[in-house]
Amino acid sequence: MDFSNVQNVVFAVGRMGPGGVQLLGTAFALNKPGFIATASHVVGTDDTGLVLAFKKLSSLNDYQDTSENSIQTLPVKLHALDPFHDLAVLKADTDGKSNIIIGGTDQTPVGTAISSFGFPHADHGRMVLTQQDMEIGARVLIAAGGIKAKHLVLNTQARPGQSGSPVFRRSDGLLIGVLVGSYAPGGGGGISLAGVDPHTLHQTTHAVSSEYLSKMY
Q1: pLDDT digits (tens, 9 = 90+) for 34-74
Q2: How many CB atoms lie within 10 A of CB 12?
Q3: Which of 2, 135, 140, 179 could make an SS bond with 165 (beta carbons 3.0 to 4.6 A apart)?
Q4: Rounded to whole angstroms, how far apart are CA atoms 98 and 100?
């Protein structure tokens, strides 16, 4: 699958403040005009000042100039929240949409080659759209409140800013998950080294099945 034009559907999501845009994570366009998906913990319950942020990029293969700080923004509002599955759908005043086909974890057995696209280290203001290729290491059910949700364990290390990244089956581009973060036992450690929780420094990242998006917009 050729992902060279993925920059047209994957964006950074941030919040406008007195000092400009604070980047929060990753979002991506859905297949209905104006609807965008991300992780619910990225945007929270308040859409005040919430925007999509993007730079002009003709292809993922372009050199992304890290010294160029000018960005374009598009206001968005919360359309639907699903905190249980850590998913959010945003709405923008635009006719733009993607041709993404939503699948789910049922269609991707262990070992399936997949790719995610997001903005690692966005919490430090770094806005570089990055592809990560990996395989599915496990399929798991995670229970909360007596309800079980389908997740994937991805064989890669994720960093802040990648939450909300779309995860595609590499063979055909089917959307199979949304990255929700590194596995951190007990919610993480009690110390931070240079802003990094040592409990997240491993090759285990979780993605929730994208099938749960289908009923949200």
Answers
A1: 999 999 999 999 999 999 999 989 999 999 999 988 899 99
A2: 26
A3: 179
A4: 5
